Amino acid sequence: MKKPLINTVVIIGVGLIGGSFALALKKAAAVERVIGIDLDSENLNIALKLGIIDEAASSFADGLSQANVVFIAVPVCSILNLVKETVNYIPSGCIITDAGSVKSELVNACESLMPPGTHFVGGHPIAGTEHSGAAAAFATLYQNRRCILTPTAATDHDTLNLVTALWQATGSSVEYMESVAHDRVFAAVSHLPHMVAFALVHAVNRSAEEEENIMAFSAGGFRDFTRIASSDPVMWRDIAMMNREALLDMLDRYNLEFNNLRDRIANSDADWLEDFFKTSKRLRDGISQR
Ligand SMILES: NC(=O)c1ccc[n+]([C@@H]2O[C@H](COP(=O)([O-])OP(=O)(O)OC[C@H]3O[C@@H](n4cnc5c(N)ncnc54)[C@H](O)[C@@H]3O)[C@@H](O)[C@H]2O)c1
User: Fold this and answer.
1) Fewest C-beta atoms under 10 Å: which of 71, 117, 123, 153?
2) Is the predicted pLDDT of residue 8 greater than 70, yes or no?
3) Which of 38, 70, 74 to mutate to test the pocket of ligand 1 (most atoms within 8 A of CB)?
4) Ligand 1, residues at Cβ distance < 6 Å
């Protein structure tokens, strides 16, 4: 039988992302034992019942003293405080890694908190659904998906190799990225689209106050486009707060395009509109073929 990569992983935040990480590692026999910590005791009970975790820690001290790796998968604004608390209990050699969708501020702050002989590596799996909690977790979430790790010049080589191997065991392909670049890229391809979807739902809802039954006509386009507006509000509040600068930059770029589009419609500029839509189609078709 294959030897597990590590003995004990402690998951802090046994929701969709933390729970799926645990299930995937167990499925790959990459870990011997999973201990769960979560603010929500009912969620922890569900995780136990579903076999996502083997035990729920009775306290931070109890769970963390046995950890080889701690995986933090809570909303991003809570990660730093949890790392501050976690470092008081982890044994020498322990690695802390996370799943937060925003990286630059976190990585620098967490790295500086680590006691000698312990290590931090930032991570961000590019996988998810609009559902939350342990009940939403599944073992194949990370299969054939990317996971971004954001090592720095100070990252320990063996630590990076181990965290990489854990993600590979979940079925992910791992890429390394500098954390500031990570935040700019995801502001564009993930955070901006979510903001647009949230705002669109509000805009259409305001029209619903004037036009009776407008939602009853909401078919394909509106539903497809706004699926991501059903994502967890706390998670997205934190992402918007933590990636503020990069997100504001993308919102400004979007507003420029959108205002231009509005002006062209107001001026009945049919040729321009057709050209604009042609270019959008070409760019979008290019993405799906890649
Ligand atoms: N859902 C996605 O699509 C996705 C994708 C990539 C990364 N992420 C990141 O993963 C993290 C977790 O997201 P999720 O979708 O699994 O959320 P989730 O709501 O499914 O799970 C989060 C869990 O953390 C627990 N929790 C919250 N604060 C806590 C605290 N202070 N201490 C202990 N437990 C706490 C909650 O009770 C919940 O069970 C977030 O940082 C998010 O940015 C999410």
Assistant:
1) 153
2) yes
3) 74
4) 12-18, 37-40, 43, 73-76, 78, 82, 99-101, 124-125, 128, 132-133, 232, 235, 239
What is the fold of 6-177? Answer: Rossmann fold (3.40.50)
CA 15 to centroid of ligand 1, rounded, Å: 6
Q: Residue 262 C-alpha to ligand 1 middle, in angstroms?
A: 37
Query: Over the stretch 187-205, which tens digit does the pLDDT of each residue have?
Result: 999 999 999 999 999 998 8
Ligand 1 centroid from CA 70, angstroms: 14
Q: What one-letter code names the amino acid at 198?
A: F
Outline where the chain has alpha helix (H): 16-27, 41-49, 60-64, 76-86, 104-113, 157-169, 179-186, 192-210, 220-226, 233-242, 244-266, 270-289
- For residue 289, pLDDT over 70 is answered with no
What pLDDT sits at residue 142?
98
Domain boundaries, the chain: 6-177, 181-289
**Ligand 1 geometric centre to CA of 210 (Å):** 37
CATH 3.30.1490.270 describes domain 181-289: no
Amino acid in the structure at residue 275: D
- Which ligand 1 atom is the nearest neighbour of the CA of 136? 20
